[in-house]
Amino acid sequence: MQQKGAIKIIEWEDLDKRKFYSLGVFMTLTTRATVYPASLIRTRLQVQKGKTLYSGTLDAFCKILRAEGVHGLYRGFMVNTLTLISGQAYITTYELVRKYVSQYTPSNTVKSVMGGGAASLVAQTITVPIDVVSQHLMMQGQGEHLTRFKAKPKMMLAASKRGLTFGQSRDITVQIFAADGFRGFYRGYVASLLTYIPNSALWWPFYHFYAERLSLLAPSECPHLILQALAGPMAAATASTITNPMDVVRARVQVEGRSSVVETFKQLLAEEGVWVMTKGLSARIISSTPTSVLIVVGYETLKRLSLRADLVESRRW
After folding, report:
1. Euclidean distance between CA atoms 168 and 177, whole angstroms
2. DSSP state, 15?
3. Which residue of 110, 153, 224, 303 has the smallest Cβ count within 10 Å?
4. Tell me, what's the pLDDT at 177?
């Protein structure tokens, strides 16, 4: 018998798939647009050596805004919107793997770990080429001396006049292919998998764990969506802290063109000490907090709105 106040998870078979996918695209795009500036700042902080350009998250935000304007915080965003494809692939894989694993175990933790890890593997295979181009675009402007590829001056001028443009994206894409071939678009793929698979595999079980603990502490009439919205950033902070060292390595491999994850890790420790592994952590948590709230509220709302007609009255908000 389900415990009073316990949160009942909406599973894949409970959903009207047509509603689920049509509403899901809008939710994903809105979330990415909201958190993109924090992702850009995190990338610049992780790639800089020491504190040569920015002293921290707030300093980076102020300097970019002052020197490059609002569009400077959205460099590479147009390319990054292509990750909408990977977002839908992630959601589908997560839900289908949960359904498959449920045939072998009723454990929600096991289903969440397996689903989260598998979903990240599929999503990163699609996302990494987009991320490689996007991260080089993020480094244009104040951080361009830290990247291997630079947009042509005319492209930069056009971008400053028109705001977001695909001109720079095309220019950077051509440079990457000319220098490294097709493999250049998968630079840092292993580092990305080592960062995001554990992060995703940790986020989902921690999310359900925190949501269940909060449901036991909260009054029984408290809306489940509020408890889930609180559990999301708690899970994100936990997972981000654990996986941040690999995120720093991933950023350096992709932007600086390094080939070895292990050698990059050793060199970073030798040059900047153990604290280099905390670089960008505050920006990552700042980015992941609203992201998690938006993802959780959006995703759980999406699932409730996408429930099959015969199940609408069986789930509470």
Report:
1. 14
2. B
3. 153
4. 87
pLDDT recorded at residue 208: 93
Residue 250's φ and ψ, nearest 5 degrees, are -60, -45
Tens of pLDDT, residue by residue over 28-38, are 888 788 888 98
Can you give the pLDDT at residue 1? 39
**Which residues does 87 contact at the CB level (< 8 Å), separation at least 6?**
24, 28, 32, 123
Q: Which amino acid is at 110?
A: V
Distance CA 137, CA 73 (A): 11
Model pLDDT for residues 68-88, shown as the tens digit of each residue: 899 889 887 887 787 788 888
* Backbone torsions φ then ψ of 205, nearest 5 degrees: -65, -35
Q: How far is CA 117 from CA 37, 120, 196, 201, 247, in A?
A: 26, 5, 8, 5, 16
Backbone angles phi, psi at 227, to 5 degrees: -65, -40
CA distance 135 to 176: 12
Cα–Cα distance, 157 to 317 (Å, whole number): 49
Of 273, 296, 272, 292, give the one whose Cα is nearest residue 284. 292
Other beta carbons less than 10 A from residue 33's beta carbon: 13
Q: Which amino acid is at 293?
A: V
- CB-based burial label for 72 (10 Å; 0-12, 13-18, 19+): buried
Instruction: Please report, as a single letter, which amino acid is at residue 69.
Output: G
Structure tokens at 214: 């909060």
